Amino acid sequence: MPTLRSSSSQLHSSSSPSSVSSPLRRALGTGPRSLSASSSSSVAVPCDDRDSDQTSEGDSESLSAGEGSDFEDNLRRNVRKRAAKRPLKTTPVAKRPKKGSRMVRAHGQKESEPPASDLFDAVKAAKSDMQSLVDEWLDSYKQDQDAGFLELINFFIRSCGCKGTVTAEMFKKMSNSEIIQHLTEQFNEDSGDYPLTAPGPSWKKFQGSFCEFVRTLVYRCQYSLLYDGFPMDNLISLLTGLSDSQVRAFRHTSTLAAMKLMTSLVRVALQLSLHKDNNQRQYEAERNKGPGQRSPERLESLLEKRKELQEHQEEIEGMMNALFRGVFVHRYRDVLPEIRAICIEELGSWMQSYSTSFLTDSYLKYIGWTLHDKHREVRLKCLKALKGLYGNRDWTARLELFTSRFKDRLVSMVMDREYDVAVEAVRLLTLILKNMEGVLTEADCESIYPVVYASNRALASAVGEFLYWKLFYPECETRTVGERERRRSPRSQRTFFHLLLSFFVESELHYHAAYLVDSLWDCAGPQLKDWESLTSLLLEKDQNLGDVQESTLIEILVSSVRQASEGHPPVGRVTGRKGLTPKERKIQADDKVKLTEHLIPLLPQLLAKFSADAEKAAPLLQLLNYFDLSIYCTRRLEKHLELLLQQLQEVVVKHTEPAVLEAGAHALYLLCNPEFTFFSRVDFARSQLVDLLTDRFQQELEEQLQSSFLDEDEVYGLAATLKRLSAFYNAHDLTRWELYEPCYRLLRKAVDTGEVPHQVILPALTLVYFSILWTLTHVSGSGASQKQLLSLKGRMVTFCELCQNCLSDVDPEIQEQAFVLLSDLLLIFSPQMIVGGREFLKPLVFIPEATLQSELASFLMDHVFIQPGELGSGHSQEDHLQIEQLHQRRRLLAGFCKLLLYGVLEMDAASDVFKHYNKFYNDYGDIIKETLTRARQIDRSHCSRILLLSLKQLYTELLQEQGPQGLNELPAFIEMRDLARRFALSFGPQQLQNRDLVVMLHKEGIRFSLSELPPAGSSSQPPNLAFLELLSEFSPRLFHQDKQLLLSYLEKCLQRVSQAPGRPWGPVTTYCQSLSPVESTAEASPQGYPRSKKRRIEGPPRRHREDISASQEESLQLNSIPPTPTLTSTAVKSRQPLGGLEEMEEGGGSELAFTQGQSLLGAQRLRSSSPQHFQTPLNSLRPGLGNRLTRLSLMEEDEKELEIQNDSSEEWQGTDKQSSPSEHGLDLLDSAELNTEGSLLLLQPPCCELTWLGSWGSQGSFSLAASTSSTSCVGKGTGLS
Description:
By secondary structure, this protein is mainly α.
C-alpha cells in the first residue's frame, strides 16, 4: 500500500507491530491529561500486500483492551515534533450566551465536570442546524478545552448506547484502555439495541444526523483545530480504541465515526492538493516574469504559503494513515456485516473523491477480497463502489490489473443468490463492456446471456441491457450524435430484428420470445415498438426467412404489442412494482392507439399469408386482445373488419388444433360486444359460421348413427366438426342450435355399442357439458319455472351416468375427460349452489350415490397415485411428455380434493389421499397439505380420525401382504412411520388446543392394536400390535398427565389379553418408552414456546401405577391444566465472579422399567438421574466477561431450541390460522399446475465466533470453557456481540 505522505515526511517505525510509533501523540504539556494514540496507528503504510497482511495480523494481536494495550506510543518519534497550536493562556472574553444555547449550565455545576448530554440529545433530535451546533461546541471548547473535549468524548460514548461517562478525573489519571475497560463494565447489556440499531421513530434518523455531525465538525475545524495536535489526534486515538472493543455497540459506532471522519479528511486533503497546485502555478508565473516585473516579496509569500500547505497536508495524511491502519485494516473483515459494509462503502467514496492517492491496487485489493463476503449487504457495497470507478472512462487504465485479477469473480456474481446483488453485478459488467473494450471474452458473455430469461424482472432487464450493448448497439446505432435520422433508419431497424432473431433461434436458451422482449423493453423499447418494420419484414415476398424465423418474428410482434398495451411483464416474471404512474399510463394509451391503427389494415393480410400454418395463425388471432376495438367505429375501418371476419372464418374451417380454434372463438367473442356499432355485422357472421358447422355436424351424425363402420375420412370430418363446435360453445351461447340431443344420442350409442371412435367421444362429452352449463346460466335467473329446473336436473343426472360409464372405458383419455367433467359438474351442482340467496335452485342440488363415490376414489388410485418413470435432463421429448402427464394427474387430484372439501364426497374418502402424503410428497405434497389444512379448519376432530384411518388402512394392507412376522422391520413399515411422523407434525405446537384430539387418537390406536387376538394357545403377539410403533410418533404431542393416563389405559387393555408373555412385547416397550417422562423434557408450553435446555424440569412424583383410580383409567377426562413453567431470564442483573455461579441442574429424565415376574406395568418406577453441574474454570475467561459469556451460553441454547422447533414445525405453519382462501397468494386447489420448487435459505456461520468446548466429568458434571475461534476476522474484540 503506498504511503499517503511524501518521502520527506516519512516516519520511521519499529519492526515490532506492537511498538509502532504514532503521529497522533501531541503534547499539551506532558501530563497524563492528554489521551494517548493507538498503538496500531501508523503513518507509513507498506507498499506490498505481504507487508500489509503481516502488519494487520500483528496489529490485531496487539489491539486488545484485555491484554494491557493502552493505545499509547511505546517509542518516541525520531523526527522533530511540531509545536502544538494551542490558544493563548489569557482568559478569553466570554461571549453572551445565545438564547436556548447548550452552553448555559445548571446552577452550581462545576466547570471541571463533564457537561450534560445536551450535544447527544441535540444530534438525536436533529431539529437544529448542524453547523450552529458545531459552532456552539467550538465556542465552549475555546473557553475550556478540557471540558469541551470531554463533552465531545461523552457524545461519542453516548452515541454507542453506553450510559457511562468519562469524568475529568478519569481523563487525567487513566489511559485509553483503562477508560474503555471501565466503560465496558458499565455498559448496559440488558438489550442488544443501541442508537444505530434501535427501533422506533426517535432513532430512525440518528445515523444520518450522527454522520452529518462528524462531517460538519471536520468542515468547521479545517482551518483551526484540525491542525492542533490535541483534539483531533486524541479523538482518533479514542475511536481507534473503541473500534477494537469486544462490545458490538462500541465497535460499530466508533467504526462509523472513524470512517466518516476519514471521508471528511479526504475532502480536506483534496482541497489542500488543489491549493498546492494553484500555489505552484502562481509561483511559476511570478518567477517567469521579467526582472523588472518580478516581486521578491510575492515569491517569498508564495513559498511560505506552499510550506504551510505542505505541513497541513502532512498533518492530514498522517491522520488518514492512522485511521486507515488503526481502524479500516481491522474492521473491513469484522464479524459484523454492517461494519464491513461501512468500511467498503467509505473506501469507495475515498477512491472517487481522491483518486490520485486512493485509486491504486493497494486499496482496490480490499474491495476485491470482500467480493467473496457471505453477506448480501457487503457484496452490494463492493459492487456499488466499483460501479462508481468503472463509470469513469479516465480511470479504467488504473483498473486493468484489478479487472484481470477479479474479473472471474465479477462474472460469477451474475448468478448470486441475492437478486439485487446479481443486478448490480450485471450493471457493473455493462460498464466494463462500455468503457473497457476487449476485457470480457466471448466465454464470459455467453455465461451471462442465459440470465436474460430469469424470473426476476430487474435481473432480466439488467442482462437485457448488457445484451443490447454487446450485440445490438454496435451494429444498429451510429456513433455520430448529430445525424439523429440515421440512428433509427429502416435498415438499422431491420438489422436489429435480424440480430434478435439469430440470438433467440441460435442460442436455443428458451422457447418463448415474450421473456426476451420483456428483458429488452427498458433499453430497446423504441426498436421493439417499431411495428412498421416488423410487419414489413413479415409481409415481404423475398424476405429469405425460414419457417422458424417467421414463427419467432410473429411471436416477437405479438409480445411487443402485448407489452405496449398491457404494460406488465409476461406470466411468471416477478416485478416489485404495484402499478403504473400517470405518465406511463398515458404512454400506454398512446401506444395502444398507434398499434391498433397500424395493425387493423395489416392483420387480414397477415392472416391471409399465414392462415395455413397453425403455429402462426393462432398468435396472430391473439392480436385482437390488445386492440382498441372502438377504432373500427371511430376511424371508419369497417371494410377491414369485413376482411378480418372472412379470414377468421377461413382459419376456423381449415384447422382443428385446439389453440387455433380457441384463439378464433375468443377473437370473435371480443368483436361480439353489443356496445359496438358493428355488433350486428359480427353477430351475423358468427351465425353463418355456426350454421355451417351445425349443418355439417347433422349430416355426418346421421351417417354415424345409421352405419356401424366409418372410414377414416368420415371419422376425421365428424371429429373436426365437433371440435370446432366445442371450442365455440365454450365462448359463445349456442343453445338455440340445440346440440344437446344429437350429442347425447351419439354418446349413448358409444356407451351401449362401443362403435363410436374415441376421437368423436371426447369433443361430444365437452359439447354436452357446455350445453348443461349454458342452460344453467339461463335458469339461474329468478324467473325460471319448476319444469325448466327439473328438465336441467334430468339432463345433468343422465350425463353423470354417461360419465360414470366412461370411467370404465378402455381409452385412458376418455376416462380422464369423464373424470374431469364429472368432478366439475358434481361441484357445480353441490349444496353450495344455493348459498347467497339462491334457494330456488335447490331442486338442482345433486348428491352422488355411494357407488359413484367409490368409482371416483378407485379411479384416483389407478390413475393418479402411480409411480412415474425417472426424468432425464428435462429436454427430451419423453421428459416433456412425462411433465405433461404429471400436470394432468395433479389436475385430477385437485378436482377430487375439491369434492372432499365442499362436502360432495364423504370426508372419510380423504384417507385414500392422505395415506399417500409421504410417498408422493414431491409430486402432490402441496395439494395434499392444503387439503389437510382445509379439512382441519372444517372439523378438527374428524380430520384427526381420518389421519388415523389412513394409517390403519396402510397397516392392514401391509399385514395382508406380508403377515405379522417381522412386520416392523420392512421398508414399507418404515415409510409408514415417516408418514405418522409427518401427520404428528401437522398438529403443530398448540398442545392445549389439540390435547383432546391427540388423546383420542392414542386411545383409538390402542384399541385397534389389540382388536384382534392371537389364536388360542399361541404365544405370538396380536397381529395389529405393531401399530403401537406408529402410534408412538404422536407421543411428543401429549402432556405429561395424559401420558400417565394412557399408560394406565394400555395396562388395562393388556390385562384382557390372556396370553401375556413373561417379558413385554417389543411394540409395547417402544410405545411405553415414548410415553415415559424422559421424552417430555422438550415438551412445549401450552402456548407453544420452547424452553431452555438449561432450565430445571421437575420430575414426576414417584408413585405406583396401581394408585391411579379406575375412573381415571376409564374416562381420561381432560380437566387438568398443565402447570405453567417457571419463567427464567437469560439476563444476569448483577455482576458476580465466575466462581460464584450457582450450580444449574439439568432436568433428570425418567424411564419405565419392565421386569420379569411382575405385572406388565404394575412395577413401573420413575428414576431421576443425578444432578449435572454447570462449571466454568476461572482461568478460561478474563474478568469482566464472565457474566456476559454465561448469558451468551444460555442465549445460544435457546437459539438452538428455536431452530429445532422451527425445523420440526414446517408442516403445521398456518394450519390453525383461521384465514380465508383469499388471504393466500395462490389457491393450490384452484391451480394445480404450480411450480413446487421452494427457496432454500442458507444459514452460514459467522467468520468469528465463540466455540464452546466441554467435557463430561465422572460424576455427571459438565465442564464448560470458551475459546475464541477466528478464521477470517483479524483482531480481538470481534467475537462478542
